[in-house]
């Protein structure tokens, strides 16, 4: 059965109270002596958080932009994402700046060119023909992206005590984003077409940051955060939440996405 409960999301309250995680709010001295693997994780998180703002481009050419609550949410979401990315960049700058780890692979270069030039127009035509039910697919993909990033921050905080203050500042932001996607999906999932779009999006979802760089570039970070068998419980818990939310038991989107890292 679908995940039930009285979870609602007050978009107006959210837009009035954004989480303002600016660099000035960070204690950079506590992050002064980070080791290589930790910096690689932060570098990965910066590339993803910075790049995820491209979602605005993809969403605003689809019927999703006509959803007033979704649009209002995305405006504040974009503000929060911007400052989160700036804060992560500040931490990396104190250690020499971001690396080239997020550089596109040969295939990624082609994909990015496609996404930036041709895909928005074709995506707009396709999604507008399909109608408002495609919104559920966007929401499902956003839920998975956010859940995966929240798991990454949570694991980073547990593995590196120096990063605990940073991750504890980020996680409430991610949880609010998840609450919004959850509330929206629960409202829509009863419609068969919306459910199909959501399940299709979840089935084709891939781990954040791998579309352009490929899995090899992200593998060291995933190994740092999730190679510990103790992390399996958290991965299973995310898949279980998604199954309940979309009312589809065989779906293991997170585990399947991680399986693509296996050489």
Protein traits:
single chain; 263 residues; mainly alpha; Ribonucleotide Reductase, subunit A
CATH topology: Ribonucleotide Reductase, subunit A
Number of strands: 0
What share of residues are in beta strands? Answer: under 5%
How far apart are the first and last residues' alpha carbons, in Å? Answer: 35 Å
Q: pLDDT average, as an integer?
A: 84
What does it look like?
The protein has 263 residues and is an all-alpha fold. The chain has a single domain (22-259), classed as Orthogonal Bundle (Ribonucleotide Reductase, subunit A), CATH 1.10.620. Helix content is 68%, strand content 0%. The chain has 13 helices and no strands. Helix 7 runs antiparallel to helix 12. It is globular. 33% of the residues are buried. Residues 1-6 and 120-131 have low confidence and may be disordered.
Q: Which helices and strands occur, and which strands form pairs?
A:
Elements: H1 11-16, H2 36-51, H3 55-59, H4 68-93, H5 106-117, H6 119-130, H7 134-159, H8 164-188, H9 192-203, H10 210-213, H11 215-226, H12 232-246, H13 253-259
How is this structure best summarized?
With 263 residues, this protein is mainly α. It has helices at residues 11-16, 36-51, 55-59, 68-93, 106-117, 119-130, 134-159, 164-188, 192-203, 210-213, 215-226, 232-246, 253-259.
